[in-house]
Amino acid sequence: MKTSTETLAAALHILANDIQSVDGVANAAILEAALRLEEQGARIKRLEEAGKNLRECAGWLVYPMSWSTSYAVCAEVAIKVWDKEAKP
Questions:
Q1: Structural domain harbouring 16
Q2: Can you give the pTM of this predicted structure?
Q3: Taking burial as the number of CB atoms within 10 A of a residue's CB, which of 30, 43, 83, 86 is the most buried?
Q4: Number of structural domains found in the chain
Q5: What is the 3-state secondary structure of the chain?
């Protein structure tokens, strides 16, 4: 069984607050790990949504009679969102 990313990040936040370290390095590292997990989870969700939008636009290719400027706009917007999210 895998722990969800959300649960793991929440546990790391708790550890970052509760661990006793003299110099605070362990706390800082654990907190940074929690924040990065949250960032990556949010980014994955945005990429999944962008991919869904691209698939919807691509669905228009099945029905070429319905092509219009709407298709071009849909594809252009979806690709821009994907490109923005896909960059590290």
A1: 5-86
A2: 0.70
A3: 30
A4: 1
A5: CCCCHHHHHHHHHHHHHHCCCCCCHHHHHHHHHHHHHHHHHHHHHHHHHHHHHHHHHHHHHHCHHHCCHHHHHHHHHHHHHHHHHHCC
